[in-house]
Amino acid sequence: MAKTTKKRDKAYKPREARRDVLALIFEGDQPLPDHQRATILMSLHGSVRSMARGTGCAQDWHTIVNALNTSQMLCENAGNKEIGLEVVYAAQNAMINVAEACKNPNSPRHGKLGFGPGDLPALNEGIAFYETLLEGVTKRQYTRAIQEAVRRLEMGAVVKVQKEGTKRFALAA
After folding, report:
1. Which range, 51-55, 157-161, 168-172, has the best average confidence (pLDDT)?
2. Which of 24, 49, 111, 122 would be 28's cystine partner, CB 3.0–4.6 Å?
3. CA distance 8 to 72
4. What is the rounded distance in angstroms from the CA atom of residue 18 to the CA atom of residue 80?
5. With the C-alpha atoms ordered 135, 136, 137, 139, is the resulting torsion angle positive or negative?
6. Residue 18 has pLDDT above 80, yes or no
7. Position 43 in a domain
8. Helix 58-77 and helix 34-52: axis angle, to 10°?
9. How far, in Å, CA of 88 to CA of 70, rounded?
10. How many structural domains does the chain have?
11. What range does the domain containing 114 cover?
């Protein structure tokens, strides 16, 4: 028999890989425990504090951006996503401003990861919103949000920060 060479009508969509099956079955629908939430927030607050003082490093910048990306994924999966996305986008844009100023040789903040005027208040709102999300999110939702953020990073669907003119986040009209 000859094989048919007919193309598929729809695109291939791989299934979600479950990495920790026992935790998914027994603990997936429980909220994040206080000690896990405290550990996550302690790392995030330390990074924000060091960047606010002007002593931030690339790891601090990535910690903050990963938290904002995770909150973006949680918002996109929620039913009322427009409410939180404005705050998250403003905070992400503030982080883009920080990276642009660090890369731009004409900037007074060249080579330093620190906040400019208006960036810290926007970031504080984003971090407060992230803390609110962590209070009500389940382990499964948090894990899936992180996995989706990592998947988008690996696909290359991220903002490439340039010296000037980096595209900013905005709500679709």
Report:
1. 51-55
2. 24
3. 33
4. 27
5. positive
6. no
7. yes
8. 130
9. 10
10. 1
11. 32-155
12 by Cβ neighbours in 10 Å (0-12 / 13-18 / 19+) ranks as exposed
Look at residue 173 and tell me whether its pLDDT is greater than 60.
no
Question: For residue 106, what are the contacts with CB-CB under 8 A and spacing of at least 6?
Answer: none
Q: pTM (2 decimals)?
A: 0.78
Distance from C-alpha of 92 to C-alpha of 122, rounded to nearest angstrom: 9
Compute the distance between CA of residue 117 and CA of residue 128 in angstroms, rounded to an integer.
19
**Tens digit of each residue's pLDDT (9 = 90 or more) over 74-129:** 988 876 677 788 898 899 989 988 888 888 888 787 788 888 888 999 999 999 99
The DSSP symbol for 56 reads B
Q: Is 24 part of any domain?
A: no
CB within 8 Å of 140: residues ≥ 6 apart: 24, 28, 29
Cα 143 to chain centroid distance, Å, stands at 13
Does residue 110 belong to any structural domain of this protein?
A: yes
Give the span between the Cα atoms of 152 and 156, in whole angstroms. 6
> For residue 127, what pLDDT is reported?
95
pLDDT of 3: 67
For helices 58-77 and 81-103, angle between their N-to-C axes, nearest 10 degrees? 160
